[in-house]
Give the backbone structure.
Amino acid sequence: MDRSPHTSDFVNVNGIKLHYLDWGGEGDALLFLAGMGCNAHIFDGFAPRFTDKFHVIALTRRGHGESDHPETGYDVDTLTEDVRHFMDMLGIEKIILAGHSMASIELSHFSALYPERVLKLIFLDAAYDRSLAASKNFRERSPWRNIQPPGLDVDYYTEKDYFAAMKRAYPSLAVIWNDAMEDSSLHETIKTPEGKIVDRMSDAISKAITDTLTSYMPDDSIIKAPTLAFFAMSKGAYSISDDWMTEEQKTQLKHHFETTEHSWTRENIEQFRQNVPHAKIIEIPQGHHYCFIKQEELVYEEMRNFLSE
């Protein structure tokens, strides 16, 4: 169910069909790119707030939502070329790119390959180098590897039941679940012939994207465009459940967030600051990974100020 004042359309690029939303507006083009597992609809509540000054659109990358799900093309070069071809199809010469989470790879790589086409960059808790040794350490030491959330081994036959199970299993989703998250999630699920609700993204595509994320070394030192980067601090705290976690699990997670996660985030901030010294960096205390939802007003005001400069 679409609850945002946009038009919905498709473009054919690189031999596949990509879905996008267009909220209209006059001025420079502002393109939002979602994180892994999300699509253009995740910005339904946030993006329209910029239409008074910009032409606001959001693209759903391949393997997500209503875009095609080919078996290949999840390497950084192809994902970046998808964005370029999309811009060409819409007649957009220069762009403001705002990307969440994994969209950092498209922002960084596009800026390295086509700096003349980038007006400004906005990283929404995205400017992370997942190829760092600290990133591998962060993943391997996470207590989540030994925690099995409840309800994930059950079949669900309605979206309502499926989403309720996801929110219970992942408390960090529950605290930011709004109309935009629901609409995005509806486009990331399908119903099997047996009537079961399952993720639209296959395991093979998920692995291909993850492999790209964990191997890509950002080209951030090449970035010349004005840049704004948000970093959500202590975001892991939203993952703790008082409903089903044991006290030992909660203690382990809290320790992980306060030590390993904090160190990992801090290392990424300092590396990004070194690579992009002209960037404006905003650290959000007790920030959520989906900062443009949980800390919407802060992110909106900082983006407004940055875009008006």
Remarks:
- The longest strand covers residues 16-24.
- Strands lie at 7-13, 16-24, 29-33, 55-60, 95-100, 118-124, 189-191, 197-199, 227-232, 280-284.
- The chain has a mean pLDDT of 96.
- Residues 247-275 form the longest helix (29 residues).
